[in-house]
Amino acid sequence: MLANLHVCHTASHRARSASNSNVTCNAVAIKRLRIAIATVSLAALALLAGCATPKRANEFPPRRPAEVRAQIVRLMPATAKDREGWATDITAAFAALEIDPNTSNLCATLAVAEQESTFVADPAVPGLGRIARAEIDRRAAQHDIPQLLVRAALALSSSNGKSYADRIAAVRTERELSLVYEDLIGKVPMGRRLFADSNPVHTGGPMQVSVSFAEQQVRDHPYPYAIDGSIRHEVFSRRGGVYFGIAHLLGYPADYDRMIYRFADFNAGFYASRNAAFQNAVSLASGIPLALDGDVISYDSDKPGTTELAVRSLGKRLDQSDAQIHRALEQGESIAFEKTDLYQRLFAFAEKMERRSLPRAMVPRITLESPKITRKLTTDWFATRVNQRYENCMAKSGAR
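Above: the chain sequence. Below: its structure as tokens.
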């Protein structure tokens, strides 16, 4: 189980997906996420479709919901509990989002849900209580709060009568931890000081979706259910988890010829796979080594990042000024980037130099870091594992 929009990685500050610690939050990743969602929403209006771009409601022959539900039940693992319930929520999400519930899209959704939660709406995280307490201690040290005060605050009775320390030690899921944090932030002054009124659990649910993404999604699109308390609570539910997960996986246009690139984007951020291929072309054309992490612009600084500097070195040959380059790279979180003069001239120049066609999508090279991750994992690992599940699902459906 991995978080996808906020995973922190060694190569960049990309969202995100991912970065995706569920206990710590990168403020830069949130800023990037908001920019990404805004640009994706605008790009969707362009109706630029590709091989892996989900069709909208008026572009595919309608399927009866009963037919879709029945197919989902057949495709889900026999070991999954309440397959009918999962099928109902997934079918409703596709209808509400106006995404074609074809076999490929259904299998992609099931593959991510199986990878992230094995079809458990609020999956358990091994050692979560220990991870959470370590995060509190880390934040206390950052704020110069003595451990004596930390222990005293956590010994206070919470809203259910148990101490905060006991509740934190007993948590098994991100939903349970999120509720403890809500209580702690709302009632204990030290909690507000530690977390700045911001719940540090940032992803959750059966598809490990970012709460920030979900909150932005409902500002841009009507949510099909009555909200139970808050959008945060909806993310941790099965119906909300699959709705927001499908929106993040399939709800943006991308000209990909393989689903694996959407799985990589799900983990690393919108268009990370396309942008990694752009970085590859820049590196080949300029001779400057670049980390193929999908970050074409530096969002945490006003100074140009390594990719932008490498592109600038080609500016005269591409007939692009520094300002033109920067404006184009600012569109790197939308499909509109592919239509810029910079993108098209760069690939034409690089392919002429290489005397061969270059890929337009590559799985980003990102090392994932999170308190939940206890071994070396990468975006490539995640995308490959999910893609294997996707291929198995397609074979089971008879489509492959």
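The beta strands are 8-9, 203-204, 209-210, 367-369, 377-378.
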